[in-house]
Structures are given as structure tokens and as C-alpha cells.
Amino acid sequence: MKAIRLYAKWDPRNNYRHNPKDIPGKLSWTGNKVWRYPELRVEEVPEPKIEKSTEVIIKVKACGICGSDVHMIQTDEEGYMLYPGLTGLPVTLGHEFSGVIVEAGPEAMNRRTNKRFEVGEPVTVEEMLWCGHCRPCVDGFPNNCENLNELGFNVDGAFAEYIKVESKYVWSLRDLEKVYEGEKLFLAGSLVEPTAVAYMAVIERGGGIRPGDNAVILGGGPIGLAAVAILKCAGAAKVILSEPSEVRRNIAKELGADYVVDPTKEDLVEAVLTYTSGMGAKLYLEATGVPQVVWPQLEEIIWKSKTVDTTVVIVARSDTKIPVTGEIFQVRRAQIVGSQGHSGHGNFPRVISLMSAGMIDMTRIISKTISLTEVPDYIRKLQTDKSLVKVTMVN
Questions:
Q1: pLDDT above 90 for 346
Q2: Most CB within 10 Å of its CB: which of 18, 164, 323, 360?
Q3: Is residue 84 part of a domain?
């Protein structure tokens, strides 16, 4: 079968500090410190086969290109990949996907029915492969698993015709059949993962909001746009999105944003204070990946607004230092929290429930569908073309 594979040269930077979990030449928890000259290839690889009784084989029907995929081939001036997280190469990319069960082991259990998965079941899959027995996992924090593996990062992902996964990471999409038909069912299913990342950030890590609170989202990529929809469902009085792209601002309005701001043409601080009558927001989401750019404005809003006890959630991946002014967070009783991943806390089934109830329709963010062999070209194109929001491969 065909698959989209990522290769790169292992060439640690001079200031690289070896992580005990790293496997030299193969795997690093800080990819941008070691991988140089990344390259995408369309290759023929063997079809996966079930080896354990709890595994399933899924025929991939849809898989979205994530910003992480883009950053794994995007490089700095020295040729190092930009993605700062866990990477093990070579690997088949792709982790935002849905498909159909074509084979299930005898102990591959469907958590929707508590029975064995059926052939033909439409499903989506968690990207973070948590172990379930390390201290973070047993404490209820699978996204911070000490033995973490990730589909499309160091375990072969879904930019392929078929993929094999453990059934404990698989979620049924039967409920989505109430709302979506045909290809659109799988397009919606492929968006459960990124939407669950946003859910984890604003509801679980950020602590959510009370109906009537305001929220400000910095960055209108798929995670920021999903956060718009989720926060409106949660009862936000005013959701304000800051995003330079007009295309993305317009989609944000469709998903429920009350106000959108172009930070390249408008004063974000003044806009937020005006739209909220000086109140500011209870929750701020940093989803730009350039915190060094947006942080001064964010602090000024917090300082000048009437709302105290606010939370800033960092969800975008970046190893850039943030210029934090402690005095502002002390006086305004504000806090900063980080959010990684989507697993646990019922995030996946809750997102599927929101979709099946018709409360959010994330298929609005899909700009284009493409074939498997077009994936490399569009991963490269997404580095610069901000008119494209979500590009999704369909099989």
C-alpha cells in the first residue's frame, strides 16, 4: 500500500542535551534539536496485520493535515525541523483521521457497546498512545504519559490506506450517522481529534467558563476555531477571535464568534476592551504559536480589564521564551496553564456527542479534500498559504 513517509538526518545541535528517553539516530522528545533536512516520500509499505488480540485494522477514509505535520517538514535557517516535540523517524505521517474497521482481534472491545468491534464500524482514533500504568496515567493524566507514543510522530500514522491500532484508543462514530452521511461522516470524524485538543485546552485545562463569561482566542487555526465553537456551546457571552486571515475570521463567525479582530490592522487591546465594555475575558487561549508576539498585548488586556481571576491557556506548540510580567499575574490574580493533547476526561466522546447533537459542525473549516499522493504538496503549501484552513486527504 502507499504511505506518506517522513525522513530526516539525525544531526543534534551543538547545545543539544541528551534526554534519557531519546534513542540516538531514531527518536527524540525534542525534534527540533536533532532532526535536519526533513524530506517527504510517497512509498510502498506492507499492509498492517493483526498481531495482538486487542488490535484492529482500519481502512482510512479521511485524514487531515495538521499544523504539526507542516512544522515537521518546515525548517529554520540551519535546516532543522521546526516541530519541537516527540518524533521518531522514519515514520508515516497523519493522525487526524477516521475510517472503517476491516478486521478486529477477538478482544478488541468497542467502548460504545462493550462488545467486540464490528467489521464496518465507522471510527476515529486518539493520536496519543498512553501506556495506562505510569504515574501520570494512573493519576488521570494520559496526555503526559511517561511512556508516550504518538501516531504519525513516532508510530506509523494514517496517511496510508490502512492503519493498525490498539482498540483502547478507538472511538465509534455511529452517533455521527444521525447527522452526516457518506464522505461527510468521515470528514467530521477526522476532526474529532483536533476538536478534542481544543476541548482539553479550554474546558479541562482552562477550567471552562460560566455562562455569561467572555473569552478571547488568539489564533484562528483549526484549534482556535474549534475553541470558538466549544466556548459558544459552553455559554460564553462574547467570544473574540484575533486572526490576520480574513478567510479564518469569516469561518470563526460561522462557528459562533461574536467579534473578530485583524491584529495587523486593529489595536487588539482597544478592541477587546471596547467589545467587552472594559470587562476583558475570563479565559484567554494562546493558539498562535508566536507567544513572543502576542504576549505583550495579552498582558495589557489583563492589566486594564475589570475581570480578575483569569486564565491564560497555552495550546500552540513553541519552545520560544515568553516574556511574562509576574506583577501583572499577581495583581490581577491571573494564571497560566499549559495544555497538551486530547486524551482522558471523556474528551473524545463528548466532542462526538456535540457533533452528533448538531451543536458544532467542524466540517466548515475544511478548505479542500485531496488524494493521498497530493499530501506532500499540500503539507508544503500550508507553510505559506493561509487561505487554506484544513486540507483533508480522502481515500
A1: no
A2: 360
A3: yes
Residue 256 has pLDDT above 90, yes or no: yes
**Cell 473524545 appears where?**
348
Torsion of CA 262, 267, 270, 275, to 10 degrees: -10
* Residue 246 in domain: yes
- Residue of 296, 16, 287, 27 whose CA lies nearest to 148: 27
Measured in whole angstroms, how far is the alpha carbon of residue 69 from the centre of its chain?
11
* Structural domain boundaries enclosing 304: 198-338
Assess whether 117 and 154 both reside in one domain.
yes
> What is the rounded distance in angstroms from the CA atom of residue 91 to the CA atom of residue 156?
5
pLDDT single digits (tens) 119-153: 999 999 999 999 999 999 999 999 899 999 999 99
Instruction: Centre a 10 Å sphere on the Cβ of residue 354 and count the other Cβ atoms it contains.
Output: 19
**Collapsing DSSP states into helix, strand and coil, what is residue 76?**
coil
Asked if residue 164 belongs to a domain, the reply is yes
Burial 195-218 (b: 16+ CB within 10 A, else e): bbbbbbbbbbbbebbeeebbbbbb
Confidence bin at 349 (pLDDT 50/70/90): very high
Residues annotated catalytic, as ranges = 68, 71
Instruction: Supply the mean pLDDT for the chain.
Output: 95
Check whether residue 142 and residue 50 sit in a common domain: yes
Total of domains in the chain: 2
Closest CA to 104 of 47, 59, 54: 54
Query: Quick one: average pLDDT of 261-269?
Result: 96
Asked if residue 181 and residue 70 are part of one domain, the reply reads yes
From 294, 125, 315, select the one nearest 226 (Cα to Cα). 315
Q: How many Å from the N-terminal Cα to the C-terminal Cα in the chain?
A: 12
Q: Write the CA distances from 162 to 62, 169, 237, 377, integer angstroms.
A: 11, 16, 43, 21
**CA dihedral of 104, 110, 115, 121, whole degrees rounded to 10:** -60
Q: Are residues 113 and 59 in the same domain?
A: yes
Q: Which CATH number goes with the domain that contains 142? A: 3.90.180.10
